[in-house]
Amino acid sequence: MKELTPIPASLQHVVFVPTKEGKKFPTIIAVHGRGTDENDLIPLVLELERTNITIISPRAPFPFPGGGFTWYDIIQEVTPNPKTFDVSLGLFRKFIDETMAAYPVDPDKLLLLGFSQGTVMSYSTALLHPESFRAVIALSGYIPLRSGLNFEIRKLANFPFFISHGTYDQMIPLKYGQESVQFLKDAGAQVTYHEYSMAHEVRQETMRDLKNWLEQAL
Question: Backbone phi, then psi, for 5, in 5-degree steps?
Answer without folding.
Answer: -75, 120
